[in-house]
Amino acid sequence: MIDSKFIGKEYPVTEYEIGREKMKEYAVAVGDMNPMYQDREVGKKSKYGDNIAPPNFAAVYNLMGCAQMFFDPELSLNFAMLVHGEQDFEFVKPVKPGDFITTTGKIVDIAAKGNNDVIKFEARSTNQDGELVTIGRATFVIRGGN
Amino acid sequence: MANVTFDEVNVGDEIPKLEVTLDQMMLWMYAGASGDFNPIHVDKEFAEKVGLGGTIAHGLSSMARLGRCLTDWVGDPGALKRFKVRFASPARPGDTITFWGKVIDKSIEDGKNLVTLEVGANIGDGTVVLSKGEAVVEL
């Protein structure tokens, strides 16, 4: 069982600049041809004034910080047995090309469930204007316990 | 550019399903787009060696496709406010996944028209890929 003293542990901020081509690439990779992601005219005429990223692009800019927890020597998680159990995103404000996103991540829960350990990570992303854009809550399961 | 209005949505409505047949190229494309090159997704030999019986799709790519099913319906991707799923079972190249959604609630909060849907994904043989899914869209 992972020591519950790590509940509340925060990780260094991660930074990510939203790139127009990168968010398009993400949309194309999941076959999503919504013009809001790639048609500049549609973006300009929309209420956002520009294209916006696919909501699940948060998997890239919001969840990056998880890697710090995966490879945290203090925690020494058994990465080979780790699976992503659940994901919850709260989209507060859409992100656009050029947005500079900073994300803070922390461990919000550690528990044993049967033979497994369950660890919950929360990541909060804000843009260059200090506005909260996305909250990600990820649940990871370490099969067989850590 | 909304495709649907709050008034025309009713509890119990099912949104158009999305069907996708996976191939290995899609897994490679998602790896490149997301930066997640875990060999269980991209290297067949490795995935077999660790007992997975072959590569498995990134859970987040299935979540993204379920998101696409929602935003295809609603039109404006910025309307999606809350989105959660459980990664129940892996999907593999060759699997045809059906993504679905069903309206379970309508409410007005702080002047916002909110629609809550139960959402999920499964493959033909009954395997559930994404379970306990819930999404909230603002119309």
Q: How would you describe the shape of chain B?
A: elongated
Arrangement of strands in the largest sheet of chain B:
1-3-4-5-2
Low-pLDDT residue intervals, each spanning 5 or more residues of chain B: none
Rg of chain B, Å, rounded: 17 Å
Quote the average pLDDT of chain A.
Answer: 95
CATH superfamily of chain A: Hotdog Thioesterase
Element-level helix/strand string of chain B: EHHHHEEEE
Overall helicity of chain B: 25-40%
The CATH superfamily of the domain at 18-22 and 57-138 in chain B turns out to be Hotdog Thioesterase
The helix-and-strand class of chain B reads alpha+beta
Oligomer category? heterodimer
Measure the end-to-end span of chain A: 6 Å
Binned, the helix content of chain A reads: 10-25%
Number of helices of chain A: 5
Walk me through what this model shows:
The complex is a heterodimer of chains A (about 150) and B (about 140). Chain A is an alpha+beta fold and about 150 residues long. Chain A has one domain: Roll (Thiol Ester Dehydrase, Chain A), CATH 3.10.129.10. Helices cover about 20% and strands about 35% of the residues of chain A. Chain A contains 5 helices and 5 strands. In chain A, a hairpin with a 2-residue loop joins strand 3 and strand 4. The termini of chain A are close together. The model of chain A has no long low-confidence stretch (mean pLDDT about 95). Chain B is elongated and about 55 Å long. With about 140 residues, chain B is α+β, with helices and mostly antiparallel strands. In chain B, a hairpin with a 2-residue loop joins strand 3 and strand 4. Chain B starts with 17 loop residues before the first strand and ends with a strand. In chain B, strands 1-3-4-5-2 form a 5-stranded antiparallel β-sheet. Chain B contains 4 helices and 5 strands. Chain B has a domain of about 90 residues: Hotdog Thioesterase (Thiol Ester Dehydrase, Chain A). Chains A and B meet through helix 1 and strand 2 of A and helix 1, helix 4 and strand 2 of B.
